[in-house]
Amino acid sequence: METNRRDFVKTFSAMAAAGMFVSGMPWLKDLYAQDGLKTVKLGIIGPGSRGMLLLEHLKALPGLEISCYCDDYEPHFERAGQYLGPDAKGYRDYRDMLEKEQMDGVVIAVPLHMHREITVAALDAGLHVFCEKAMAQTYEDCNEMVKARERNNKILYVGHQRIFNTRILQALKEIEDGDIGEVTQMRAYWHRNSDWRRPVPSPELERKINWRMYHEYSLGLMTELATHHLQVINWVLKDKPDYVMGSGGINYWKDGREVFDNVNLVYHYPSGTHVIYDSLISNKKYGMEIQAMGPKGTIEIETGYRYSEQPPPAPGIIQLINNLEHNIFDAIPIGGASWVPEDPSTDKGTYLLDKMLKTDGTDVQMASFVADVRNNRIDPWLTQQGFYAGIATIMGFEAMMNHRIENWPEGLAI
Amino acid sequence: MEAQHRHLQSMGTRLDMVFPGISASKCDQLLEQVQFELNRLDLMLSLYRSDSDLSILNGTAHAGTMEVDQELFSILQEVRRLHKESGGYFDITMKPVFDFYTGNPGEDQELPDAIRRKVGMDLLVLDQTGISLAEKGVVLDLGGYGKGYAVKRLVSIFEASAIESALISFGESLIYGLGTHPFGDSWKVSVPVGDSQGAVVFNLKNEALSTSGNSLNNQKKFGDSGHIVNPITLELTSRLGLVSVKAKDPVRAEVFSTALFSAGPERSGEISQGLSDVECKWV
Q1: Which DSSP string corresponds to B152-186?
Q2: Angle of CA points B227, B232, B238, to nearest 5°
Q3: Higher-scoring residue by pLDDT: A228, B238
């Protein structure tokens, strides 16, 4: 991890020096300043699998103390205690922790249905908050979290790590520079092939462990996967959707789950641009991707490729230029019928970045959160990204559940 | 030797130009002239622009004689001559037929009489006062002519700029060799033969080479319907193969490659015997 972080700093510095980032990304400054660090004290609530990953990234940062942790599931409580050591104090009730601990902020990685309650309580306790994505389960919950941030004037990050991924930053820059022209359509998908279940030690723990399967706790594929892509799409289109239509269902994993195992949506943006999104967990051939398409080209944001609408020169032309440069006179293979059917382009594309870093942005995001807490640097834009992605996510869910066109809820904006 | 290469998108395909031994700035000046000329032709000949001269003509000339720009008038005069020279196999009114078949792929449908009435070069009426179309719905489509005309115009521009050597490729199907390769006595290009590794080599010196046909690759994917309308039978030409036509005039190379492909190997031999400036080869 340390190596990755150094790699990032090096590459990031080179890219920043070359002016490679989109303008107006203040959160990407001074992430790893080493001099005269003031120690930041954080607690973590919900050190489950995602929470432990966040802890690993946090522990790699200088000038940071994880002073306490909280979990009401015993195996996770014990694991976190062992990982953090005796200096960190453990709690089984987050309210106790917020009341008794003196700290600068908390990292919240609990199941979705608890995001609002714990985030609002932490903000009202005067703490900066990092809350895992998706923001919350309902429009009202998302809005309450925003209001709590505003009334306490604290930092609120939602865990959309793609904002901190260099490959995605480069894609955004090229799109903003007009390299593919105006974005006229976006398509995104996230496909897996697994039941998405976790092993349960005893039956009464089913809903606690597999909370993602049940509507009481989760909106399923929408809040677990789609929300990431919707954040990036809002970012690319510099807007939020005004309505969405869609359909979802359970057609393969008929194992008692309540959430859809396939979701299919069309989002409409005020510019007239549409986003076509689908996700399923019964086939993984196409994996995941976010495609931004314009009259000049296409950028595949997740895999980091760009494609031009103008085909590359024929091999014969390349050969001719090469021959001329080497003073060679020879036949070049170039003549042929020009008509081609409208089948997909065979252009293999080019990489957005020469060097692909082994990070999805989560480590940078944690570094950014800690640096912002240290400097009391509040960026409402980051909260807005989480908020708008959260609302768009819930809109998709509501459209599918109610078989109706779901409009952006009136009055919800930052 | 250094060579300059420029490309741009025009007439629905890619135009590549290679200039040996000239400076980049000279080449960029030429490119500006090329872009200007292609835009001008687009405004006159494109069916993708509703404001082009040809689109306006198609939309209104059935209602009465229309005066057009002298250049477009001359083009349509030439088109009529080429129609006769090709034994009727070059016909710029075939778009409704093409649209019917490609809009109903794989269906064994009879071409409706309503479409048959809208095709045929006799529906294009030229007289001293202008141009008229004898039926509403006739569509003049210069797609099989335009690239040749554009190349002819570009060659004039290059010659006026004292360019002695260049190779132009318009979508790979129309190649023009201006002057000679700097280390040879012509420009040498090869057309691949079917699925094999073989190729037919052509030497071009101030000459154009145009290739038309159905490739095996396309036929594998799309069955045997083809994409070129035979104006005599009003069917798509399903034959597999390519025909390459070499001529001094890129317009004639372009027009006769399509027409002779429709006519087929036997009939094309008869037609090309009467064309002293055109060399035709089935590959």
Answers
A1: HHHHHHHHHTT---EEEEETTTEEEEES--TTSSS
A2: 30
A3: A228
Residue spans in chain A of domains classed CATH 3.40.50.720: 2-163+360-386
Does residue B101 form part of some domain?
yes
Position A256 scores a pLDDT of: 95
From chain A residues 327-386, the ones with a CB under 8 A of any chain B CB are: 327-341, 343
pLDDT at B257 over 70: yes
Closest CB to B191 among A309, A336, A343: A336
**Could you please report the per-residue DSSP string of A144-206?**
HHHHHHHHHT--EEE--GGGG-HHHHHHHHHHHTTTT-S--EEEEEEE-BS------SSGGGH
pLDDT tens per residue across span A226-237: 999 999 999 999
Confidence class for position B84, pLDDT limits 50, 70, 90: very high
DSSP annotation of A112: G
Question: By three-state DSSP, how is residue A137 classified?
Answer: coil
Given a cut of 70, is residue A244 above it in pLDDT? Answer: yes
Interface of B with A in 98-157 (CB under 8 A): none
Say whether A336 and B221 touch across the interface (CB within 8 A).
no
Q: Note whether A336 contacts B7, CB cutoff 8 Å.
A: no
What residues form DSSP beta bridges with B249? none
Q: Which residue of A has its CA nearest to B18?
A: A321
CA distance A278 to A267: 11
Q: Could you give the CA distance from residue B162 to residue B159 in angstroms, rounded to a whole number?
A: 5
Residue B103, SS3 per DSSP:
helix
Pick A331's closest partner by Cβ from B9, B190, B221: B190
More confident residue, A356 or B228: B228
Q: What is the pLDDT of residues A103-137, one digit of tens each?
A: 999 999 999 999 999 999 999 999 999 999 999 99
Listed by number, the residues of chain A in 292-321 with a beta carbon closer than 8 Å to a beta carbon of chain B are: 309-311, 313-314, 316-317, 320-321
CATH of domain A2-163+360-386: 3.40.50.720
| Structure-derived torsion over alpha carbons of residues B239, B241, B245, B250, reported in degrees to the nearest 10 | 80
Q: Look up the pTM and report it.
A: 0.67
Residue A344 has pLDDT above 80, yes or no: no
- Cβ neighbours around A248 below 10 Å, total: 23
State which H helix or E strand residue B148 sits in. Answer: helix B143-160
Query: H or E element: which one contains B156?
Result: helix B143-160
The interface predicted TM-score of the complex, written ipTM, equals 0.83
**Span of A277-286, A322-331, A352-361, B74-83 with lowest mean pLDDT:** A352-361
Q: From CA A243, how far away is CA A283, in angstroms rounded?
A: 28
Q: What is the pLDDT of residue A22?
A: 42
| CATH code of the domain made up of A179-311+343-357+390-407 | 3.30.360.10
CA dist B90 and B268 (Å) reads: 12
pLDDT of residue A49: 92
Number of domains chain B is built from: 1
Q: What is the pLDDT of residue A315?
A: 78
Which residues of chain A neighbour B169 with C-beta distances below 8 Å?
Answer: 314, 316-317, 334
| pLDDT on residue B195 | 59
Domain membership of residue B201 (yes or no) is no
B14–A331 CB contact, under 8 Å: no
Structural domain boundaries enclosing B71: 53-133
Report the CATH number at residue B111.
1.10.3980.10
pLDDT score of B221: 47
User: How far apart are the C-alpha atoms of B64 and B129, rounded to whole Å?
Assistant: 11
Identify whether B120 is part of a domain: yes
B86 located within any domain: yes
B136-152 residue pLDDT tens: 999 999 988 999 999 99
